[in-house]
Design brief:
By secondary structure, the chain is mostly beta strands. It is about 5% helix and about 40% strand. Strands 9, 10, 11, 12, 13, 14, 15, 16, 17, 18, 19, 20, 21 and 22 form a 14-stranded parallel β-sheet that branches. Strands 28, 29, 30, 32, 33, 35, 37, 39, 41, 43, 47, 50 and 52 form a 13-stranded mixed β-sheet that branches. Strands 1, 2, 3, 4, 5, 6, 7 and 8 form an eight-stranded antiparallel β-sheet that branches.
Length: about 750
Amino acid sequence: MTLPTLTSPPPQTLRRRGRVVLSAVLAATLGITVVSVATDASAADALLSQGKPATASSVENATFPASAAVDGNTGTRWSSTFADPQWLQVDLGSTQSISQVVLNWEAAYASAFTIQTSANGSTWTNISPVTAGQNGLQTLNVTGSGRYVRMNGTTRATPYGYSLWEFQVFGGSGTDPSLPTSDTPDLGPNVRIFEPSTPASTIQSAVDQAFNAQLRSPTAQFGAQRHVFLFKPGTYGRVWANVGFYTTLAGLGLNPDDVTINGAVNVDSGWNYGDESNATQNFWRSMENLSIVPEGGTNRWAVSQAAPMRRVHIKGNLTLAPSNQDNGQGYSSGGYLADSVVDGVVSSGSQQQWYTRDSRIGRWDGGVWNMVYSGVQGAPANAFPNPPHTTLATTPVTREKPFLYVDSAGLYRVFVPALRRNSAGANWPNTAGTSIPMREFYVAKPGDSAARINSALAQGLNLFFTPGTYTLNDTIRVTRANTVVTGIGFPTLIPTGGVEALNVADVDGIKVSGLTFDAGTTNSPTLMSVGRAGVHTDHAVNPISLQDVFFRIGSSVQGKATTTLAVHSDDTIIDHIWAWRADHGGAPTGWAVNTGDTGLLVNGDDVLATGLFVEHYQKYEVIWNGNRGRTIFFQNEKPYDVPNQAAWIGPRGNGYAAYKVADNVTDHELWGGGSYAYFNVNPSVRVDRAFEVPNRSGVRLRSVLTVSLGDVGTIANVVNDVGGAVPNPAGNTTPRNVVAYP
């Protein structure tokens, strides 16, 4: 093959399989608290190059212009002709001090290059030594100044040209004054902050007002209301907080025991319009980072999807079922508990399925179909299906969710817990991690545009979303390693015009948490993506993580999206998501109305999902193409609204499996997975299998089941052609269980 016949290579697929670095986990192992302020140079300096004029010595063709390397889009790139030397330069518009250059190389990179600056674009000064490039992200700390900055490549590493996804220059005077930051930020009108000196009657009145406005309301489930109640460190007198839709209660201490509430943080049935008799629609609420001394000894948290309890200390008992659970209709259906301590007994009662991770409990009583535990001290023994407990001694990889707290000086900070491996028990007190001052966050508020949010990211800030709805006419692009993107009070991102709402680059350590996505009325190919298709970079030491991220196709909006979440980056941690194509909403729903093929697409290798809820999509609901994937707890309901069998024929027969592992995957594990059918539009509809996986010894499923809810609709087998059908001859929503496959 001669050079003139070459075209740019496909994205690189090689991996560096480094594993655990001792220093990265030593502090956590020894139980030492590590608190440090983030010092990434780009967190203090501005991104100067994005969107500025760029030129190059050559381009391979018009598809790969110089401007593509400074457009903030990691899916476009500059590529040169196949010769040495070549350069790419950006005009910053005025002379700036330069502190850092970040190069995101495609597979065709430089084996020797320098970074140069110039005041006039003709006389150049080296501000870096001759440097070898690398496939993927490369960060150079430099010192210099100039209006023009260029990468001057002298030797290619491949027969191809030089190719950069992004060329980022940082420096200047720092933050944009139009994007103010503060260590005592305004969190907006939907956030109430209490102190121990606040009268209990004031707190009670505030939480009652929020809840009573939702009491048997026909609109609250998909309403615009958002309520966050934050408690500064201290002890609070009797507060009985009923928790409704889009409501969060959280402590502002560094540890849960820094905030003590006497009374209850209560979720029950009997109040939701049209569904008063059960708790199966108790969605979108949360409790975090506080302790409760429950009145009467037991706190009630009868929730279903998208209702996490994290970093909580229950100084008594905890029940997860509604108070009418013994009256024939009292069900709750699927919750999540992590990084918590329950001194007494956890009673699950009529809770149909539940996942508990890295916690300590006194004892667990009960279980209906699918109760899963990983890293839980005091968990029941593994006994699936009778009783239906699936228990793992540890969780393979964890990084707990970032949380807001107030330091001793009254300043606000975000604590980012460190990565743990083979973890068990709560990660507090003495949590290892990093404390970031709020001045390094842009505090987003409803009404902020995508351009304003991207400008904050471009100047090196993290993002903190306050409660409310954000309409986005462009994609929010997170490109800097270790960026924290978090929210409180279920901030909801709605794309318009079919754009993707959030794009996370294939770089180390980005953390996304506490966000809700609503599909817009114009179909989006994806609502959120992580990494770039076809690229496999080893992030094992510092993975990207997603926590409490929820997706809806259909809500108050008749949304459409082909795939809600696509994960391309290797080693990504998916810790508690709910991807939901709505079976009901504030706006009408239906088979041809709120359309969506797939909830989760995983192309990355070594991806771990802990607490995976995906429901009602129209084709394969989870597609797992990456190798060495692991899921601990999976909950699914098939689409209710299939009109007839002819409308729902998949590649291998009737319908689509809920959980599809690609035929070429050689290594995959799932512990504790349930898929349920309720084909109420046409009960004659059937799906041939709930789980579809290749028949290989390395692909292993443990504790999986199917249920026909109310015996409405048929799932013919659990896994491939194994397990038998539901409805069972026994009827009465009796599950089919497969303990191990193969």
